[in-house]
Amino acid sequence: MSWQETTVLTLLVAIVAGLVLTRIKPVLLFAGAAFVAFQTGLTSVEALTANFTAPSLLTLVLLILVSCALEKTHLTSWVAQQASHGALPTVIAKLGISSALLSALVNNTAVVVSMIGAIKRNRRHSPSQLLIPLSYSAILGGTLTLIGTSTNLIVNSFVERAGLPSLGFFTPTVIGAAALVAGLLVLIPFSYRLPRHDGEQEESLPYVLEARLAADSPLCGRSVADNGLRALRRLYLAEIHRQDGIIAPVCPDTPLLAGDKLQFAGDVESVATLQEIPGLTLFGQHHIDGQNLIEVVVSHSASICGKTLKAARFRETFDAVVVAIRRGHEKLDGGLGNIPLHAGDTLVLVPGKTFRQDSQALRREFVLFNGLEASTRLSERKSVAVLAGFVAVIGAALLTPMPILNGLAAYLVVLLVTGIISLHDLQRRFPVEVVVIVGAALTLAQLMLASGLSARFSDWFMATFTAGGAIGALVAVYLLTLLLTELITNNAAAALAFPLGYSLALGYGVDPMPFVMAVLFGASASFISPYGYQTNLLVYSVGNYQLRDYLRLGLPLSVVYSAVVLTLLPIVFPLTAVAP
């Protein structure tokens, strides 16, 4: 074995050991391996730079960035409504299909991030019964198209680096669709095995929020209970303010009238919840248009202390609208605009275009600035425009010669120019770790092929497992990739398994495409561990899950998914012989 092969093998063993046995972040392990490869002369700066600027990687980055705008549309509101109506099997089916279809066009991690808040706000079912099915549905949906998941784009980068034709947009669709249908048939009955963790019991400091009923509101003339305002999760209708007085406490059969001001107690997510209820106009609604929320604390020296929002002319003075106020556990009385502000009050703000939290004036008024993950929704007109623009980009990539990379770049510029997203949004969402991991993984995969290490592995495999032939090798590559995905991460699994699969295809003299797709689908088969796939990890703490919760649902799903994929792989992508 040459020194190049020995060095590459040592780096691979170090990465796998670090991922499995330590808590070192994957980004540090992959970055360190790429650094060692560069310092030892295994790769040049030109090759390293090319790997970090691969078209598929840039496409992935742009998809993640434009998803900032997609998350602010009313798509998540629609999903929240679907998760609020019907029995659990019906909700799982609707949630699974909608999240899977979204994941086919938007990176599945971004889909889950944007859906978590909607699932937490649903009015009927415990989030812990919905979040793991959401993650699994997004994973299944990500296998429908080339851009559905980062893994697909990374595998495509390996394909292009190997000199093979790039994968098509719908290359994985047939097998992905079959896996999705089979997966939903497992998710629906097995979701009953998930625990019910009711977030209502979690202690939280309540914010005061206010909404008004317009004269044409569909809520008018119906009772509180009929309008579903008694079944809101983590949001409580405390008072109704009318011209003839205040109604408190609010009874379920209290009718709502035009002009009523409804005062709620809830958390930060309640801002989006109230925006999603048709017929309610949130306090400051006319100035809300997709901005990220900011949390501030009123200073002891603030000039607004003792004044109400109206008296302080808050919006005109600071170019920001207050949508929620919190004062410890104290119950605040009166409409939101009529509450005198005290030092220590926590305000949730919707910033305007000229709002600058680094200005001296604001620093004198507020002692804490905390950017929140929650954001307001875009107006319906802008939501439609954002979605139409994204569909146009995908359509142009499918129907015209324009690469999707060009379309996404132009679309991102339009979003910035129109103010739909800001530079702060891009800084907050820029996937630094993804870029480093993928760029380093491409480098390692390239070194495995160039050094001859993957060919050596392939020869050993063929000599050891001669009975199975090419079909046995295909199954083995898939199962190896699946195992690596559960032990480490999906992207790392693809990086380690692709060179072996490609070398096996060359060794058997067959078309590499079945092996490429085995790696692609195997790397997305992370269902029995919260650590193998980012979407599983995203819902882990939110749903208050334990490892056994993933096993209950993920193990049968993994078995059915693998059976479907391994059955269809040699049918859709035959193991045809190719000329040497």
TrEMBL record:
UniProt domain RCK C-terminal: residue ranges: 196-280, 281-365
Endpoints of the signal sequence: none
InterPro entries in UniProt: Cit_transptr-like_dom (IPR004680), DASS-Related_Transporters (IPR051679), RCK_C (IPR006037), RCK_C_sf (IPR036721)
A Pfam family that the UniProt record links to this protein: CitMHS
Protein name: SLC13 family permease
Alphabetical keyword list: Membrane, Repeat, Transmembrane, Transmembrane helix, Transport
Source organism superkingdom: Bacteria
UniProt subcellular location: Membrane
PROSITE patterns referenced in this protein's UniProt entry, alphabetically: RCK_C
Residue spans crossing the bilayer: 95-118, 130-155, 167-188, 384-402, 408-427, 434-454, 460-480, 492-509, 515-533, 553-573
Membrane topology: Multi-pass membrane protein
Main location: membrane
Biological source species: Salinivibrio proteolyticus
